[in-house]
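tool_log.txt
---
The assistant was asked to compare two proteins side by side. It first ran the structure predictor on the initial sequence, then on the second. Raw inputs and outputs are pasted verbatim so the downstream comparison step can read them without reformatting.
(1)
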Amino acid sequence: MDLSACSDEALVGVIQRGDNSAEAFGLLLERTLPVIHARVDYALRRTKSGVLCSREDLFQEGMLAFLSAVSSFQSNRGASFRTYVGVCVNHRVISALRRNLKAWEESLPDDCLIPGARGMDPQDIFSAMEETRRIMEVMQSQLSKLERNVIESYLAGERYDAIAQRLGVQPKTVDNALQRVRKKLRKYL
């Protein structure tokens, strides 16, 4: 079987079943490394956190997220493996940064504190608030009521069938709404 012709999702299936898993794992890792590097680099640039974590430490966190993503990925959840692993890497990197920030803050003597020293950088808080406001405006202006309900439920961790039952629609309707949301958000964000 020529694994190089397989999709990322098919490679994950091969790995999870244990068939040719070493070859599939190597190929999947090769394809995913750019995603891991991009997420780590973005986190370092965005948070200016080189003092909190080295690039190598964050890359290791990204690799651990990749391993976790390979074992926990479910193709029937509606996301591609590339999207799923990107989210896993983001969460893992953010958690590492938070742990290191907390340790750094705890090491500061109390007389060195200035307003806002414990917690996020005020500029980062403002940027996050602006980005959230922009996303909410796009969601309000571009998404239908069904699409907003579906994405809010999906982001809250609800499964397709639970969302469908609560909204009184078919699971395929939920899937279609999520696909439309993704297209619209990519277009406007």
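(2)
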Amino acid sequence: MFRPENLLREARRQKGLPRQNVPPICVLDPDGDIVRHLCKTGGAKPVPHWACYHSTLFSFEREGITFGIVGCGVGASYAVLIAEQLFVSGCRFLVSMTSSGQIQGKGPTPYFVLIDKALRDEGTSYHYLPPSDYSEADAELIETIDESVSRLDLAVHRGSTWTTDAPFRETGSAIERHRQEGILAVEMEAAALYAFARVRGKPVVCFAHVTNQMARDSGDFEKGDNDGTTDALKVILAAARGWRRRTETA
């Protein structure tokens, strides 16, 4: 009964905003590091017609592609709220780039995981899909993006993650159990975003930027150059190129 397009209609009315589309390719940046870096370097500017009550949308360009980006949309319910509103506002492809804790090691951190499925240990996905263990990405889309990011000189692994609502309740037994299941990392958004994508029929791809081992040792959470944004933007751009090639040949 409560539709995102109706909410935005009323928000535009209250704020006196015109109805204009957001960029067709948008990014969720739960940590906000990418947005902060882009704003600091002058690479991002606010999108004035974005009517969402709860977030600020910025735009930036990379190699001729204009992106929209929302920072600090951490957690499954907030991420999906933003995703719903982006797609009814002109978004055609959504990339989530979230920082993540290592479950099964794939080498020294930081590195990236292209998430092909996420364990549903949160609440939001269950409002979109019936109960199941995992929320799965669109297989053909993942193949396309995997091929595109594999050309990068970066460590990008494909695999599953564990989506949780409560990061400070990750117990040793749960971590070990998920490690035995082959899960690579833990994050807070992917299961819900993939459930939303499947029900709405929208292209969404989620990356985990594995930066830590839950701060169990000193010196954890180091992301790399410019708080990891240099490499993260390379991955995002590669994903955008892959999606564009796929749509042009469809």
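---
observation on (2): The chain has a mean pLDDT of 95. The longest strand covers residues 111-121.
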